[in-house]
Automatic annotation (TrEMBL):
This is Hydrolase. It comes from Streptomyces silvensis. Coiled coil: none annotated. It comes from the Bacteria. Keywords: Hydrolase.
Length: 236
């Protein structure tokens, strides 16, 4: 079927965060800190294992003292910051202020890269007259990222978990997104990389299509399928 609206997840779907090593190096440079290369490599590996970078490697083992906070991390800006800086602080850092500096770095547009086909697909949907929304579990305003990378003109509505104190897979967040783009759920396709979180749209009656959460250079064209689905030439 053809769809009148498409909802996209943000991280791992339209954009991908930089590598943990790049995240750390960029933060160190911005803070005026210099470390030996072997120490940078060691810290990057430790931060990656801790799951400290939002949108990076999934956390394998959240410490007990952060478990409750982790479960609600996307419900507010304060909870999101506390959860991720808490994970960062499980790694011994050369400077205590580095935890907050790392958190600030990941919120900047230069920390994110759109997937190679993101602009093409969003432009194509606009040409088809399909309404587009972004619905994300997140603790900060991602709109400047879309603006900096030239994708903002193709997005009709943003529904961000921290602005509504709701997290995917809660169907209420998808309902807000459908209302935001002015399209009924049964005429809407949700595209995401998380089968649990993004799959929650199915409970509302949306069709769901999944892509793999891979580095940008390893996923050049997975979003192009969405154009076919929106145009009615594929199946969700």
């Amino acid at each position: 079927m053809a769809f009148k609206g498409v909802l996209f997840d943000f991280s791992g779907t339209l954009f991908r965060i930089e590598s943990t090593a790049s995240w750390l190096r960029g933060t160190l440079a911005g803070s005026g800190l210099a470390l030996p290369e072997d120490e940078v490599t060691r810290l990057a590996v430790a931060l990656d294992r801790a799951g400290a970078l939002p949108g990076g490697s999934p956390t394998v083992d959240v410490p007990d003292h952060l478990l409750e906070l982790w479960g609600r991390r996307d419900e507010s800006a304060e909870l999101h910051r506390a959860a991720y800086t808490g994970l960062t602080r499980t790694v011994p850092l050369p400077c205590p202020a580095l935890a907050d500096a790392l958190y600030e770095r990941h919120r900047t547009p230069e920390a994110w890269r759109p997937y190679a086909d993101a602009a093409e697909v969003l432009r194509g949907l606009r040409a088809l007259g399909v309404r587009v929304g972004v619905v994300s579990n997140i603790g900060w305003d991602l709109r400047p990222v879309f603006d900096a990378h030239g994708l903002a003109p193709y997005v009709d509505a943003y529904v961000l978990s921290y602005e509504h104190a709701l997290q995917k897979p809660d169907a209420r967040l998808f309902a807000l997104a459908c209302d935001g783009i002015g399209v009924a759920p049964q005429d809407t396709l949700m595209v995401g990389d998380d089968r649990r979180a993004d799959g929650g749209a199915a409970a509302l009656g949306c069709a769901v299509h999944f892509v793999d959460h891979l580095p940008v250079d390893r996923r050049p064209d997975a979003l192009r399928t969405v154009l076919g689905l929106a145009g009615g030439t594929g199946a969700a």
